[in-house]
Amino acid sequence: MKNIVKIFAFVVVVTMVFAIAGCATAPVATEAPAAAAVATDAPVATDAPAKEITIGFIPMTLENEYFITMVNAAKQEAEKMGVTLIVQAGTSHGSAEEQLQIIETMITNKVDAICIVPSSSESLMPALKMAEEAGIPVINLDTKIDADLVASNGLKVVPFIGTNNYDGAKIAGEYALTLTGGAGKVAILTGIAGQQNAADRRNGFFDAIDGKLEVVAEQSADWEVEKGYNAAQNIITANPEIVMIFAGNDNMALGAYRAAKEAGKEITVIGYDAVSDALTSIQNGEMSATIAQFPAEMGIQGVDAAIALINGGTMPDETFTKTELITIDNVADFVTYLAQFK
Q1: Where do the H-state alpha helices sit in 164-290?
Q2: How does the average pLDDT of the chain come out, rounded?
Q3: Which CATH code is given to the segment(s) 165-292?
Q4: What is the Cα–Cα distance from 132 to 153, expressed in whole angstroms?
Q5: pLDDT tens digits for 213-259?
Q6: Distance between CA atoms of residues 298 and 321, nearest Å
Q7: How many C-beta atoms lie closer than 10 Å to residue 241's C-beta?
Q8: 342 vs 160, more confident
Q9: For 218, phi and psi rounded to 5 degrees?
Q10: Gyration radius from the chain CA atoms
Q11: In the structure, what pLDDT confidence band is assigned to residue 6 with cuts at 50, 70 and 90?
Q12: Do 22 and 44 touch, CB atoms closer than 8 A?
């Protein structure tokens, strides 16, 4: 049965400039491994633009709190800078065809710039070509577009703002070694096959534990709670001796924890993203940890970069936002930080 296409559109029309802080600083974990260094700062738009600007903002979905946080921060920055933000998204993480339709419509409607979290690199190539031909700058947020594919299609580099997912997952792997004492069998739940962040998170965790913990199962669960639950059920049934599951995002981790609990197993679960349900789970002593990304910073920097590029500025090919290990020790502080983007 085909999914009914639902496109969520939020149009932010700014009538006044509010004095909202451009980049909030998150709490620092006292015992977490060092977070990934920022590669190069993205452009910062310090003044309202001289002309009317409309920015298209396309998260992967609006059915995930992570992307809602990103959008809310982008809206706040758009209000601050006096620009119009048009937000649209497909119905799920894998809605590549819907996303292609959205970006093509935005190009036809002549937005001044586009910020996008891609569902698929390959399916976006025609739209990226359209945008380049129309002189509309595109900023890639969160999930990296395949740079080799962009080059092979004869397109200009699409600048990226987001997490160094490999380094973030290495932090998770190092914490896994601490929790397990460096011994035991573990499983990995991965995101959508072909997405760079799914590969980076798997590889970062695997490289940190390789030769110390034994990975007995790996399975894709497409970033979804129920798929994470089903995958974990199968893994636990086939490998009842596992002591830990690392999931490439919190949705899958929450599903995995539920599967472990129903099986009566004491299995440590580590996620990635630091969404509110995962933070609550950690506060309740259920999930052991998650790796916090900072989607709000991506949203803010994406809007600023769009304004800068529209006005003839430049930005580096890659700008990395930070990551942070969230455990029972610092979860309350992180919850307070996130509250400003609700």
Answers
A1: 165-180, 196-209, 225-238, 250-262, 276-283
A2: 87
A3: 3.40.50.2300
A4: 12
A5: 999 999 999 999 999 999 999 999 999 999 999 999 999 999 999 99
A6: 7
A7: 10
A8: 160
A9: -135, 135
A10: 20
A11: very low
A12: yes
pLDDT confidence tier of residue 9, bands split at 50, 70 and 90: very low
Distance CA 306, CA 53 (A): 10
| Residue 84 neighbours by CB distance under 10 Å | 16
Q: How many other CB atoms are found less than 10 A from the CB of residue 280?
A: 14
Q: Largest Cα–Cα distance of the chain, in whole Å?
A: 63
Say whether pLDDT at 119 is over 70.
yes
Nearest to 267 by CA among 292, 247, 231, 241: 241
Q: Stretch 263-278: mean pLDDT, rounded?
A: 96
- Return d(Cα 325, Cα 289) in angstroms, integer: 7
- Pick the closest to residue 6 from 125, 112, 92, 66 (CA basis): 92
CATH of domain 8-163+294-321: 3.40.50.2300
Mean pLDDT of 30-49: 46
Strands 214-220 and 185-190: parallel
Determine the average pLDDT of the residues in 60-82. 94
Residue linked to tokens 């990934």: 36
Q: Find the helix packing angle between 276-283 and 250-262, rounded to 10°.
A: 40
Cβ(223)–Cβ(93) below 8 Å: yes
Q: Which phi and psi angles does 32 have, rounded to 5°?
A: -75, 150
User: What angle, 0 to 180 degrees and rounded to 10, lies between the N-to-C axes of helices 225-238 and 250-262?
Assistant: 40
Confidence of residue 50 (pLDDT cuts 50, 70, 90): low
Distance in angstroms (rounded) separating the CA atoms of residues 167 and 186 = 19
Instruction: Answer whether 104's CB lies under 8 Å from 133's CB.
Output: no
**Every domain range in the chain assigned CATH 3.40.50.2300:** 8-163+294-321, 165-292
Q: Where are the beta strands (DSSP E) in the chain?
A: 8-12, 54-58, 84-89, 113-116, 138-141, 160-163, 185-190, 214-220, 244-247, 268-273, 289-292, 318-321, 324-326
